[in-house]
From TrEMBL:
It comes from Rhizobium favelukesii. GO terms for molecular function: DNA binding; DNA-binding transcription factor activity. Pfam families: MarR. This is HTH marR-type domain-containing protein. The keyword Transcription applies. Coiled coil: none annotated. Keywords: DNA-binding, Plasmid, Transcription, Transcription regulation. InterPro entries: HTH-type_Bedaq_tolerance, HTH_MarR-typ, Tscrpt_reg_MarR-type_CS, WH-like_DNA-bd_sf, WH_DNA-bd_sf. Residues 10-144 form the HTH marR-type domain.
Length: 146
C-alpha cells in the first residue's frame, strides 16, 4: 500500500507540475502578446544582461539553454534595434561582451511596466477579493518552489 501511495503522490506531483508549466507558459505568452512586448527570446536575453551585466554570446546561450547560433541571431536583432552593444572582454582580448544600451534599459523597463500594468488590469477586472487572497497565497507557494 505505501508504495502505491508514493507512486500516486508522484503521479499527482507530475500532473500538477505539467499543469503549472502549461498554465504559466500560456499566461506569460498571453500577457506578452496583449501588452505588445517582444518575444520571449529577446526579452529573456535583455533580462539576463540586466541581471548579470555584460556577457558573451556563449554565456548567454548557456544561460538560456539554446544553441550558440540561435543566440547569435537573437543578439544580432537586438543589436540592429540598438538595444545591446558590444564591449571588449577584459578577460579575453579576442572576444567581446554584450551589454544593455541605454535604449535597451529603457525598453526593458517600459516592457516590464506594460506587462505589469496588463496583469493589474486583469486582476482588477476578473478577480474578487477572495480570488486576490488566493492569488497572494499561490504566489508565495510558487516562490517557495523557485
Amino acid at each position: 500500500m505505501a508504495g502505491d501511495q508514493a507512486s500516486s503522490g508522484q503521479e499527482d506531483a507530475l500532473a500538477l507540475a505539467e499543469n503549472l508549466r502549461r498554465t504559466l507558459g500560456k499566461f506569460v505568452r498571453g500577457i506578452r502578446s496583449q501588452a505588445d512586448t517582444p518575444t520571449t527570446s529577446q526579452s529573456e536575453t535583455l533580462s539576463l544582461l540586466d541581471r548579470n551585466g555584460p556577457l558573451s554570446v556563449a554565456e548567454l546561450a548557456g544561460l538560456r539553454n539554446v544553441r550558440h547560433q540561435s543566440m547569435r541571431l537573437v543578439v544580432g536583432q537586438l543589436e540592429m534595434d540598438g538595444l545591446v552593444g558590444r564591449l571588449p572582454n577584459p578577460a579575453d582580448g579576442r572576444s567581446q561582451l554584450l551589454s544593455l544600451t541605454e535604449k535597451g534599459q529603457e525598453s526593458l523597463s517600459r516592457w516590464r511596466e506594460a506587462r505589469a500594468s496588463k496583469i493589474a488590469d486583469l486582476i482588477e477586472e476578473r478577480l474578487s477579493d477572495r480570488d486576490r487572497q488566493i492569488l497572494r497565497a499561490a504566489i508565495a507557494v510558487i516562490e517557495r518552489l523557485a
